[in-house]
Amino acid sequence: MNDSIILGIESSCDDTSAAIIKGNRILSNIAANQAVHKEYGGVVPELASRAHQQNIIPVVEKSITKANIQQNAISAIGFTRGPGLLGSLLVGTSFAKSLAMSLDVPLIEVNHLQAHILAHFIEDANPMPPKFPFLCLTVSGGHTMIVLVKDYFDMEIIGKTTDDAAGEAFDKIGKIFDLDYPAGPIIDRLAKEGNPDAFQFNKPKLGNYDYSFSGIKTSVLYFIQKEVRKNPDFIKENLYDLCASVQKAIIEILMNKLEKASKELGIKEVAIAGGVSANSALRKAMQDHEERSGWNIYIPKFEYTTDNAAMIAMVAQLKFEKGEFTDLRTTATAKYDL
Ligand code: KG4
Ligand code: ZN
User: Fold this and answer.
1) Which fold has domain 5-119+305-322?
2) Which residues form the signal peptide (predicted)?
3) Taking burial as the number of CB atoms within 10 A of a residue's CB, which of 231, 263, 294, 304 is the most buried?
């Protein structure tokens, strides 16, 4: 890989992030989280756009300072074109276009989902990068899918959720438990103190490699409503066990299909990506398979799991090598296939 220096910009949801990459080595990876959404229990798109606009220049400036480079060392600008919230994407896209024009460097569009997967090729993401073909369970707040990765830019979705994403299930169930948004990391933390076998929840029975998470959410809701009628303090008294049981159920659903795909396709190179890949029970389940099923597993370094610009810069670097540039008339896109 060449050692060009590229700036990556990510603004697809509620994190404004900028990163500088040299070759596949990250020199800086800065993010500003938006606390403004907490009190609403979810991301409010208009507030997200406004916060991106506020954050983007300080975040980009900080990424350049931290990387200890001069602005004129930047060879290209990579940005998230989609998928995501349109208003949020527009802020990053407009800024990336303007900066590319003023620095007179190429502009490179990046698919956010490809970036979650290709984050595995960042130098310090893994001890070793995955070998093609590999399976990547891509699990975030907006997406849940099993991707067959044949090459950097040759990916096939072999299974996906038919309703909620896994991260969304964590967040919505967390809301039932009266936890803050995003509840995924909170459930992960509380689950450590609980008994994962305390409660059983319905699991979907879908064929093929597809997922469904709306059933478990409803099952938790009805169960909680029933118990709270009998004991108003039920949630408080059982919070650790509830979190551990919900987490166990979600991770089992995720792993069963991944295991099925690995067996049926005969692929033992198995990776996880996206915000939910930060989950400690999912990481543990992957490690178990490494021993039990002989998988070579790839779990990205924590800071490359949730939304970040390092992964955007990584994809931009791969496209820069191929000379795949984007016209300055480009626009953001809320939907963007792999
Ligand atoms: O990839 P990401 O940062 O943003 C999207 O592209 O959606 O993923 C965010 C999602 C949220 O739903 C959040 O609750 C979940 O990832 N998440 C977790 C954990 N950390 C983040 N879910 C379970 N356990 C975690 N430790
Ligand atoms: Zn994401």
Assistant:
1) Nucleotidyltransferase; domain 5 (3.30.420)
2) none
3) 304
Closest atom of ligand 1 to 140 CA is 8
| Sequence spans of domains, the chain | 5-119+305-322, 130-299
Cα-based distances in Å from 118 to 29, 86, 112: 16, 23, 10
Per-residue pLDDT of the chain (338 residues; tens, 9 = 90+): 789 999 999 999 989 999 999 999 999 999 998 777 777 778 889 899 999 999 999 999 999 999 999 999 999 999 999 999 999 999 999 999 999 999 999 999 999 999 999 999 999 999 999 999 999 999 998 899 999 999 999 999 999 999 999 999 999 999 999 999 899 999 999 999 999 999 999 888 888 999 999 999 999 999 999 999 999 999 999 999 999 999 999 999 999 999 999 999 999 999 999 999 999 999 999 999 999 999 999 999 999 999 999 999 999 999 999 999 999 999 999 999 98
Class of domain 130-299: alpha beta
Which structure tokens are listed for 98? Answer: 């303007």
Ligand 1 pocket (Cβ < 6 Å) reads 13, 140-142, 167, 170-171, 182-185, 188, 274-276, 278-279, 306-307
- CA of 325 from ligand 2 middle (Å) equals 23
Per DSSP, 121 falls in state G
Asked if domains 5-119+305-322 and 130-299 share a fold, the reply is yes
